[in-house]
Amino acid sequence: MSNNTFATTRRQLLKTSAAGVTLLAMPGLVGKAGAQEKLKVAAIYTVPVEQQWVSRIHKAANAAVERGDIEYVFSENTSNSDYERVMREYSEAGHDLIIGEVFAVEDAARQVARDYPDKAYLMGSSFLPMDDTPNFAVFDNYIQDASYLSGIIAGSMTKSKNIGMVGGFPIPEVNRLMHAFMAGVREKAPDTTFQVAFIGSWFDPPKAKETAFAQIDAGADIMYAERFGVSDAAKERDILAIGNVIDTQTDYPNTVVASALWHFEPTLDAAIAKVKAGEFKADNYGVYSFMKEGGCTLAPLGTFEGKVPQDALDLVAEKETAIKSGGYIVEINDEEPKSS
């Protein structure tokens, strides 16, 4: 199946999922039906565990350890060229569930899953499950709901109506959050212009900071901090920032107004339950990141309590209620955002 076909099918699935349709399921169950012992879980990360996206997976896994549900080991900073080897080693070592992110190694990762049909794989991916890998489920950070709400706050706080946005790569996982944020901004400031840039790295704070400085010099008075380093630039130039995936306000108490938080716990907990029940299969776990599933929230305002206009807070509360009830659906737009 071509990548274009994958992408088209994926968009169709997520539109229906957002409207409340059940998860995609394929034949072929994997797991430990009736087993009460702890699951052995291994994770493979291509970046450090403190990186925003991966840190949320790591946090959820450690929470499952504390509950006594799983045993957990992980590898971080695994290169793409080494990913398949590490994945095979964990598969051979008797782990029941293997998690990770395979955006750059899709083909190799799926082949490993085919070679170990009795193992369960839950992988961050831009694509859907496939018929020939019934033990390979996918997930993604569909936190567009919280990103949209953070945009409403940003739109109420910008004075120059010029917002800078610095991302890692223009892939669906980043694009959809940027679009949702921009849509939220336009709820309060429809005439806002956006400067959009990508640094070509998932973890290069100095480059992200440099790019943010350029956007601030070009008039941005709020920065969308999709990458580490952006909030540092905002802090040094005494402007505001909006966080992504994690809450960094403790580190930037006078800079980060709000953050769209990703909670991986619903995704991982669903997979653990399926493996324990012997019912794990090639599902799309992306919808567990939706706000109505508890997969994302807007961070507390904290130090900015009382500093955000009340009309913006009222709109946030109204939209959040509608999102959770299914009365309002934030658009999922995976296309690359452009400066405008």
Summarize the structure.
The protein is of the alpha/beta class. 39% of the residues lie in helices and 17% in strands.
Describe the secondary-structure layout.
Elements: H1 3-18, E1 39-44, H2 52-67, E2 70-75, H3 80-92, E3 97-101, H4 106-115, E4 120-124, E5 136-139, H5 144-157, E6 162-167, H6 172-188, E7 193-198, H7 205-217, E8 222-225, H8 230-236, E9 240-245, E10 256-262, H9 265-276, E11 296-298, H10 310-325
Task: Provide a descriptive summary of the structure in words.
This protein has 340 residues and is an alpha/beta fold. Helix content is 39%, strand content 17%. α5 runs parallel beside α6, α5 (144-157) runs antiparallel to α10 (310-325) and α7 (205-217) packs across α8 (230-236). It is globular and about 55 Å long. It folds into two domains: 3-139 and 264-287, Response regulator (Rossmann fold, 3-Layer(aba) Sandwich), CATH 3.40.50; 144-262 and 305-325, Rossmann fold, CATH 3.40.50. α2 links the parallel β1 (39-44) and β2. The protein has helices at residues 3-18, 52-67, 80-92, 106-115, 144-157, 172-188, 205-217, 230-236, 265-276, 310-325; strands at 39-44, 70-75, 97-101, 120-124, 136-139, 162-167, 193-198, 222-225, 240-245, 256-262, 296-298. The protein is built from ten helices and eleven strands. The strands form two sheets. A six-stranded mixed sheet has the order 7-6-8-9-10-11, with helices on both faces.
